[in-house]
Amino acid sequence: MKPKFISISEEIIEKIKSGELLPGDKVPSENELIKTYHISNTTARKTLLEVENNGWARRIKGKGTFVLNRSSDHHVMRTLGSLDMTRRGFNENLKAEGFTPKNIIIEKTILKEGISSDIVGKHLIMEGPVLKIHQLRYADDDLMKDEIKYISLTLCPKIDRLSTEISYFKVYEDNYNLKISDIKQTLSVDIMQPSAPNNNFDTKAPIPIFVLDSAVMADTGKVIEIERSLYRGDKYKFAIAVNPEYQSK
Fold it and tell me: Which of 63, 138, 209, 248 is placed for a possible disulfide with 102 were both Cys, Cβ 3.0 to 4.6 Å?
């Protein structure tokens, strides 16, 4: 008979192969394995090590074990409506998948006037002052995302002093005690021409682009953040979480 840790690791690997666990998803922890399979600490630890040694996941100290992205074409999976993924932030999600993230800031400035955006058929307004951050997001050496983010300095004073590599979602909750009631997102598709003035992907041929407009809403109805991001259509795949429920910590 196979050792118990081998059998359980094979179950986890099968979930990864079938897509039940996606790149960047967290593999069940030692405690979760102990509770589910009624096994010892040693067996649980061996199980996770076996999944990792077979190249299906990677342990990040203090955070857990995450499914690696094994796609040869660098396709990155993102799940719209996933609060866990949103909380982790772009950099942490890439690290979880086994990529090395890099950010290049094009603009970081404070706008005295507010901004507005139409998302999910609603006209949303963010009163000034507003922090604008425009940065290019890389996975290894590939530019994956051209991101423009606007953050309310009324709700989040002095947030402009923080690093842009953080998960802002967690900062809203932890530093500013904001209760997030909703995340509104609209996904569309466009074609980016090489000659387009906003083409930071430096492509020599037209490429498909995912355009994601999103807004993070406080329970007061005020807009905390508005984002407009361009994702390379040949590098990304999107999934959708149906009817996700927000759970405050």
Answer: 138
